[in-house]
Design goal:
The complex is a heterotrimer of chains A (about 350), B (about 260) and C (about 80). Chain A is an alpha/beta fold. Chain A contains twelve helices and 15 strands. Chain A folds into two domains: about 240 residues, Thiamin diphosphate (ThDP)-binding fold, Pyr/PP domains (Rossmann fold); about 110 residues, Rossmann fold. In chain A, helix 6 links the parallel strand 6 and strand 7. The longest helix of chain A has 19 residues. Chain B is α/β, with parallel strands linked by helices. Helices cover about 35% and strands about 15% of the residues of chain B. Chain B has a seven-stranded mixed beta sheet with strand order 2-1-3-4-6-5-7, with helices on both faces. In chain B, helix 1 crosses helix 7. Chain C has one domain: Alpha-Beta Plaits, CATH 3.30.70. Chain C contains two helices and four strands. The longest helix of chain C has 5 residues. The termini of chain C are close together. The chains are: A alpha/beta (about 350), B alpha/beta (about 260), C alpha+beta (about 80). At the A-B interface, helix 3, helix 4 and strand 9 of A face strand 1, strand 2, helix 2 and helix 4 of B.
Chain lengths: ~350, ~260, ~80
């Protein structure tokens, strides 16, 4: 059975969560993701789940901590300033190894910024905006369909690895209306047992959900286990879209809504005879470094990174090529959106 | 002198009177040394909570949430499911756990910083939503874990490491009466302030904690017990004097008694 | 005959038991315990140093006020 619905990205994201069996949502209104919190309010009451409009983003992330600790699939969402507030909570969730999904529909910053789209929370998401050595799995969808699909996947992934998963969207993706296809058979959540969850200690030893380890050497051991987990994730969960013909000389690297513009610009460049390609990271952590490195070693001389920021992902591309190729950058900030013409002009300048 | 011929009187064999232990350690409380200072109220309050849990036979249903503060490792002493929480967010964590597991008994255990400073928003909103949880609020008027700084409940004139000349109402504001503030909210059901400065007060404290848990078990709504507690180390006095200070000083400002009930 | 037993090596020397015993039957020991403090000890029926609240010195009634106030819960009361 399949349905095709015209939905805005925010709502598609919410529906992905519902399909994944999310039964707990706590959030706080902030533009440009208000459609998501409203959608969850409606859908949670329809499926008898829990919806709480929390008193702040701080409270919301701790509510997600609690619901996750109790073994429920839980989600919260916000936009850049609100996600800044959640950083402490995310660090706790990562340290206590709880599964959950966090959605960030990025907007212009820093500070109150504006409500136009942005991509300047890349560092915060990927390098860890909260304290401590932790990693959050980060997916960057670039359409309403992908928002649904990757939010659905995020819950399975969170449970599988006992780790928070962040869906990094932006205001443009959140608010655009696109057709979304839902084929019911394709959305079967993978149920993971949670023997560690707090359910009342009947028939077992009591469980403790904690990220606090005072004993001599205990926290270091805990961190080593976390790092091992992150290595496992890095080895198996890389996702990217590659439009990179063997003869490409310039590879554009972009994610999210910017990747759509970049793809169009690359096609126009090809039509003009410029040998351009595109690598679109979908998992931002783990970052597809090897794919970029391999492209560099295979003779791609120039990489052009396009972002709605002052240049954040570009640093990871530079790390990946490790000096073997040229890395150029073009970005718009403060809510500015790169156009096809701007990207094409930049490709032509490099050609 | 003639030695009296004493006949040995045969007495019936005396029944050995069985000595019964009057009080035993609650099953929910682990038998290990606690890290709290000599005379700290936390040790007593932990035990009262465990006794009440045993009395209601809910050890296998209970989920506790430990605070950030001296009682951060309360889960080392409690033999049931426990979660930590970020500082102040304890009522938010409890809200979520109770909402997804309404048949479990969920309680928070918080100090004055956790509840009345950084967590003011969370306690007010959990109370305002009338969450069916139980809050144990340990009020010892100072931040113990971090070295004795001023708390929202520090009394006027009280010397702490951040109010060296004594708390100045002009500079530092007034001690907060959180219970009285929460009583105004229609979502709160049962609020009582008690103390652990003497054995008699400990009896009363236990009765209040018992009623608070009963309120939740009977689905009657939000319950909270504020426990005036000693912090001998950061009040700069011996435990016996600290207990006396609650009687003669602290309880005059924070009166012991029922604040709201049904 | 009611009596109490204080686990002296787990005593932290807060002496709350001493002021809570209505018959002043607990005193401070002279020696140091394993924690390096002078533990509280049952004086077992003999009048203690402190003034008795009830005026009835001498007998333990097994009221268990000491055990109830003891933060470490290391006083066993036998009746």
């Amino acid at each position: 059975m399949s349905r095709k619905i015209l939905m805005c990205g925010n709502e598609a994201c919410g529906e992905g969560a519902i399909l994944a069996g999310c039964k707990f949502y706590a959030g706080y209104p902030i533009t440009p993701q208000n459609e998501l919190i409203a959608y969850m309010a409606k859908r949670m009451s329809e499926i008898n789940g829990v919806f709480i409009q929390a008193e702040s983003e701080l409270a919301a992330i701790s509510m997600v901590f609690g619901a996750a600790a109790a073994g429920e699939r839980a989600m919260t969402s916000s936009s850049s300033p609100g996600v800044s507030l959640k950083q402490e909570g995310i660090s706790y969730i990562a340290g206590a190894q709880l599964p959950c999904v966090i959605v960030n529909m990025q907007r212009g910053g820093p500070g109150l910024g504006n409500i136009a789209p942005g991509q300047s929370d890349y560092f915060q998401s990927v390098k860890g905006g909260g304290h401590g050595d932790y990693k959050v799995i980060v997916f960057a969808p670039s359409s309403a369909q992908e928002l649904l699909d990757y939010t659905f996947l995020a819950f399975d992934m969170a449970d599988k690895y006992r780790n928070p998963v962040l869906i990094l969207g932006d205001g443009l993706l959140g608010q655009m209306m696109e057709p979304v296809t839902i084929i019911k058979e394709n959305y079967k959540p993978h149920v993971t047992e949670k023997p560690w969850a707090l359910t009342g200690c009947k028939g077992r030893k009591p469980n403790i959900v904690r990220s606090f380890f005072l004993g001599e050497g205990a926290l270091e051991e805990h961190n080593k286990r976390l790092q091992q987990k992150y290595q496992t994730i890095a080895n198996s969960e890389i996702r990217a879209q590659i439009i990179n013909p063997k003869d490409s000389e310039i590879v554009v690297v972009a994610y999210g809504s910017v990747a759509r513009t970049a793809k169009a610009a690359v096609e126009r460049a090809r039509a003009k005879g410029i040998k351009a390609g595109l690598i679109r990271p979908i998992s931002l952590w783990p970052f597809p470094s090897k794919i970029i490195k391999d492209a560099s070693l295979a003779g791609r001389k120039k990489f052009l990174v396009i972002e709605m920021s002052s240049g954040q992902m570009v640093e990871d591309v530079m790390l990946a090529v490790n000096g073997k190729s040229e890395v150029d950058f073009y970005g718009r900030m403060g809510g500015g959106i790169p156009t096809e013409e701007e990207v094409l002009a930049r490709i032509e300048a490099l050609a | 002198m003639k030695k009296k011929n004493r006949k040995k009187i045969k007495r019936p064999a005396q029944k050995k009177v069985e000595e019964k232990l009057v009080l035993s350690r609650p099953e929910s409380m682990r038998d290990i040394d606690m890290h709290y200072c000599a005379g700290c109220g936390h040790s007593i309050i932990h035990r009262l909570v465990c006794e009440v849990i045993d009395e209601f036979k809910i050890r296998e249903r209970v989920i506790g949430i430990a605070p950030v503060g001296c009682a951060v490792i309360a889960y080392e002493y409690w033999d049931f499911d426990v979660s930590e929480a970020a500082h102040g967010r304890t009522p938010a964590v409890a809200t979520a756990i109770k909402r997804v597991r309404p048949d479990n008994i969920v309680f928070t255990y918080q100090g004055d910083g956790d509840l009345a400073a950084i967590g003011t928003a969370e306690i007010i909103h959990a109370a305002n939503r009338g969450e069916n949880i139980t809050v144990i609020f340990v009020n010892n008027g100072v931040y113990g874990m971090t070295g004795g700084q001023m708390a929202p409940t520090t009394l006027a004139g009280q010397k702490t490491s951040t109010t060296i000349a004594g708390r100045s109402l002009k500079n530092d504001g007034y001690p907060l009466k959180i219970m009285e503030m929460l009583a105004v909210l229609p979502g709160t059901r049962y609020l009582e302030r008690v103390s652990v400065h003497s054995a008699q007060e400990v009896f009363r404290a236990k009765r209040a904690i018992h009623k608070a848990f009963k309120t939740q078990i009977e689905n009657k709504g939000f319950s909270m017990v504020e426990v005036l507690s000693m912090c001998p180390t950061y009040w700069g006095m011996a435990p016996v004097q600290a207990a006396e200070r609650i009687k003669s000083d602290v309880s005059l400002f924070y009166p012991i008694g029922v604040v709201k009930s049904y | 005959m009611p009596k109490i037993k204080i686990n002296r090596d787990r005593c932290k020397g807060c002496y709350l038991c001493i002021v809570n015993c209505p018959n002043s039957l607990i005193k401070i020991e002279d020696k140091l315990n394993a924690k390096g403090v002078k533990a509280a000890v049952f004086s077992g029926g003999k009048p203690a140093r402190l003034k008795s609240k009830s005026g009835l010195a001498g007998k333990c009634t097994g009221c268990a006020m000491c055990a109830i106030i003891c933060p470490e819960f290391i006083i066993e009361v036998y009746k």
